[in-house]
Amino acid sequence: MLVRYLDAWTAKALRSQRGGTYVECGGFAADALRVFGEFADRLDGHHLELVVVGSSAPAGAPEGLSVQVIPSLDELVSDGPVLTHLDGPEAWPQFASLARGKGHEVIVTAPAGDPRVSEGCAVELVAEDGEARLLLFATADVKHLATFKSELWAVDEFAGIRYHDPHDPERTLVDISLTPQLLPLRRALLAELGKRGRCSVAELQRFTLLATIYRPEDAIGAVGSAVAAGEVVREPEKGRLTPKVVVGLP
User: Fold this and answer.
1) Cα–Cα distance, 177 to 231 (Å, whole number)
2) Which domains does the chain have, with CATH numbers?
3) What does pTM read for this prediction?
4) Distances 249 to 148, 191, 221, 230, 234 between C-alpha atoms, Å
């Protein structure tokens, strides 16, 4: 997942005049260099920087990539877009400050079951043997969050992992698929409608983006199945289910 998102982030950074800075605080620097190496023919003339915190930089940086080593995050200086990977419990003290600001994005990898999952978009990756790891993404830009969600569901479905939404009280494990199982989302949307009473499908799509592991477009399918089951009423009663349709509990 880190490789997939860094690949998408790098492509976007190279299309921007502002470039970007990737900050690695875990053990992912060598993998990051392999991602940057795939863009070696496009790095010249662009500002793309790798900052490694607290350890030495791996060898093999492609020409055109700026590499910097700093002892701690306190030494980080950047006025452009920044993607930071933090690893482990020690990540949390810096998390909030790094997630603030235009163009700032943070990915945290931490033990499953961490109570601070409400601080961003969180998903637990569960292996076949039951071992789980928390992945949390935070940004002030919903467009970046939407990109993260797209990459989340585009991961190889044969990777040997499933997803769990840490906010799902049923703890349902969901197979990775471009057309995922929507029952956990359906339950979450029904619970949200119980709080709101009535709202537009667009509002439920935004809730889906901000508060679940699913993508906004998945809300259409989940609401549609709830309407078909009689769990939700809609206005107008007929026609295509669009973001402007108002829905509520019967």
Assistant:
1) 25
2) 2-175 (3.40.50), 183-248 (1.10.10.10)
3) 0.90
4) 31, 10, 17, 9, 9
Q: Report the length, in residues, of the chain.
A: 250
Provide the residue type at 10 as one letter: T
Q: Which of 145, 173, 177 is nearest to 159 (CA)?
A: 177
Alpha-carbon distance 64 to 107, whole Å?
25
Per-residue pLDDT of 148-163, as tens digits, reads 999 999 988 777 899 9
- In the predicted model, is pLDDT for residue 13 greater than 90? yes
Q: Tokens in use for 179? A: 């057309």
